[in-house]
Amino acid sequence: MTSTAQTIKFNVGGTHYEVSKVLLDRFRGSMLQREASRVWNEGADEVFIEGNGHRFQYVLDFMRYRKVTLPSSERNDVFVTEMEYYGLQRFLVANARAAYETIKFNVDGTFREVPISLLERRQDTMYYRKAVEALRAGRNEVIAEGNDWRYIGNKIFNHH
């Protein structure tokens, strides 16, 4: 089966995907968009990418929805590395807060997940700034050493 004018086939490490031209065109300059353009111009059947076929689904999820929810078995830094490999890191950084629905706060070894949307309402706090810094670095964890959760929770959840 060949690629149509509206889609392109990707063989990523032996796993096959079919992706719309419209989706790829939203990410101009990415390796995926460049390779797809090359294949369309040459009339080839598919793009082969030496990559992790399983993880590619999360890259596509990000491309489609501008956010991704990774299962606990997948590390965020590995996802960021995948995005860099495909030339999509600038889109991840531009949408850092949209890439994750929550961020984890590590307070003296206790982890709490806080919705990004809630933190965005508290942009005046250092915890918001730390969260943005972590997301831009490809992490969705903030270490808040020496602070107890009650204090952090009051700063984030209370609006006074």
From TrEMBL:
Domain of life according to the entry: Eukaryota
GO biological process: protein homooligomerization
InterPro entries per the UniProt record, alphabetical: SKP1/BTB/POZ_sf (IPR011333), T1-type_BTB (IPR003131)
Domain Potassium channel tetramerisation-type BTB: 8-92
CDD domains the UniProt entry points to: BTB_POZ_KCTD-like
Protein name (record): POZ domain-containing protein
Organism of derivation: Chaetoceros tenuissimus
